[in-house]
């Protein structure tokens, strides 16, 4: 039987007396972004399944009365820790209705987070095992750039603000190392709690798995990390079918729900925050490539949600390390002035400007694996004086020096440096004021928690920077409660209204074609966290 075929062959008949499959095989692979693309062109071209789509599949499986169990087969699973934790919750919900078995050819930190929502964890005898905790690596370019005649001005508030240190320094400083180590410790603490709860052991036992030097599935079984060693063919019976083969049966079982009492709007804020329209930078540059959340686009979506009569609450989903201080403040204003309750849900990142926009939400929900905080400000520029000399380049200037202070041709003068420092201190004061007002903390306490320092979701909860741990489903539930809606009230993904001679998706496609190395225009003051943090 070929489980990859979305239809049944003549020799794939169900056993006698069985009219419908009793087990479904659900494949998990890829990164699982949170929501479907919000414009038609991106949605048409995307081949990546979203977490939203996966949740819909699992909900249909939960409601299938003829289904006994689900085999969740992990492939090339590349989701972030926060996304893996959200999938864990989906599988746990499914497990309350059906028997759920996770099949893991690769036992690693991320796949185990997601699979821990299943009641049973199974690996083949030949499984690759890498359960060694979390770590990260960051390459510092300061010496490399200096050898090529390029230096970097890096003005920051305050000591933990590390957004530009990879360019200005030769090595990681003590403050940055301290905050990153604390963040990784927070992630490992969350992992230990998740796996201890899943396997019914103490947290001390689960923590011991990280130091146990596990190298095989048999060793993982002996340690209690998994429940069985078996190959896939030993788990699949004659009444099992792939999800695609039963899609029609599932579609019939759960009709859609109409928005009668009201609905919840979901507004995505994904990528570096910039002024103008959202776009995607196709250049794979460190920090500057990938999606960019434009303040015009996000603010327009928030205004549309606020003006929609059927929308009773708004969920702002943030997966961003921040960016432009101006753009962050413009988005913050739309959240702060909303008469409808706004719930912020944090994804992998909600740092710096990504935290700024959340401060005045009614409720902030973070994953225990979220990287948040980084309440600080940074400004800087490359200095090409030596580079120009070596290569025979001679920039000539006419007019006021102050008008050219951000030119890369020379470093700041003392007067200019004082001017920039004054500006970023003013932005930092505004940032800490926003946090103090929104989170009901003193400015002194916010400054203690700020200074550019990052926090894990659990640490942020312990310090009052977020309200609870969870994922988008948690945020939707809180939004429905705040709006007095029933628990099954529908949600809709918000895009700005179409305008101009071209449809909105065509305008965004045209924006994406613009190649921009520095995405912030003339802005130099950033509430930005270096997003090059990829745990392994």
UniProtKB/TrEMBL annotation:
GO terms for molecular function: serine-type peptidase activity. Keywords: Hydrolase, Protease, Serine protease. Residues 96-236, 337-485 form the Peptidase S49 domain. GO terms for biological process: proteolysis. CDD domains: S49_SppA_67K_type, S49_Sppa_N_C. InterPro entries: ClpP/crotonase-like_dom_sf (IPR029045), Peptidase_S49 (IPR002142), S49_SppA_67K_type_N (IPR047217), S49_SppA_C (IPR047272). Coiled coil: none annotated. Signal peptide: none annotated. Pfam families: Peptidase_S49. Belongs to the peptidase S49 family. This is Peptidase.
């Amino acid at each position: 039987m070929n489980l990859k075929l979305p239809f049944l062959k003549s020799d794939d008949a169900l056993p006698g007396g069985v009219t419908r499959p009793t087990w479904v095989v659900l494949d998990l692979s890829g990164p699982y972004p949170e929501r479907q693309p919000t414009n038609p062109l991106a949605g048409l071209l995307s081949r990546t399944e979203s977490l939203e789509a996966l949740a819909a599949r699992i909900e249909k499986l939960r409601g299938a009365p003829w289904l006994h169990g689900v085999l969740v087969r992990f492939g090339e699973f590349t989701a972030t820790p926060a996304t893996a934790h959200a999938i864990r919750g989906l599988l746990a919900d499914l497990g309350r209705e059906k028997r759920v078995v996770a099949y893991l050819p690769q036992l690693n930190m991320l796949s185990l987070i997601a699979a821990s929502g299943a009641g049973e964890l199974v690996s083949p005898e030949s499984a690759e095992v890498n359960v060694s905790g979390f770590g990260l690596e960051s390459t510092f370019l300061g010496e490399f750039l200096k050898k090529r005649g390029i230096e970097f001005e890096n003005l920051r508030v305050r000591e933990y603000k590390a957004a530009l240190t990879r360019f200005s320094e030769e090595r990681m400083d003590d403050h940055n190392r301290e905050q990153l180590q604390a963040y990784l410790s927070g992630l490992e603490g969350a992992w230990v709690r998740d796996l201890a709860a899943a396997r019914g052991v103490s947290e001390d036992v689960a923590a011991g798995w990280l130091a146990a030097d596990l190298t095989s599935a048999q060793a993982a079984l002996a340690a209690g990390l998994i429940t069985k060693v078996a190959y896939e063919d030993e788990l699949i019976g004659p009444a099992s079918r792939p999800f695609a083969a039963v899609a029609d049966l599932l579609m019939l079982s759960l009709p859609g729900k109409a928005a009668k009492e009201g609905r919840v709007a979901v507004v995505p804020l994904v990528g570096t925050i910039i002024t103008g329209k959202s776009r995607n930078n196709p250049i794979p540059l460190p920090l500057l490539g990938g999606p960019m959340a434009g303040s015009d686009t996000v603010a327009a979506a928030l205004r549309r949600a606020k003006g929609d009569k059927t929308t009773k609450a708004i969920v702002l989903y943030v997966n961003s390390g921040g960016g432009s201080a101006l753009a962050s403040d413009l988005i913050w204003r739309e959240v702060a002035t909303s008469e409808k309750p706004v719930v912020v849900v944090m994804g992998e990142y909600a740092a710096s400007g990504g935290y700024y926009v959340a401060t005045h939400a009614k409720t902030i929900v973070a994953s225990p694996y979220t990287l948040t905080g980084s309440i600080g400000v940074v400004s800087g520029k490359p200095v090409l004086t030596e580079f120009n000399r070596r290569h025979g380049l001679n920039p000539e200037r006419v007019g006021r020096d102050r008008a050219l202070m951000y030119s890369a041709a020379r470093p700041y003068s003392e007067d200019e440096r004082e001017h920039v420092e004054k500006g970023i201190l003013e932005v930092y004061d505004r940032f800490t004021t926003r946090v103090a007002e929104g989170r009901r903390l003193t400015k002194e306490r916010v400054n203690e928690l700020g200074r550019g320092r990052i926090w894990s979701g659990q640490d942020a909860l312990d310090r009052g920077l977020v309200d609870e741990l969870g994922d988008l489903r948690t945020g939707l539930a809180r939004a429905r409660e705040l709006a007095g809606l029933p628990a099954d009230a529908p949600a809709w993904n918000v895009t700005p209204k179409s305008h101009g001679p071209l449809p909105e998706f065509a305008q965004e496609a045209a924006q994406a074609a613009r190649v921009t190395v520095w995405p912030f225009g003339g802005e130099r003051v950033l509430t930005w966290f270096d997003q090059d943090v990829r745990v392994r």
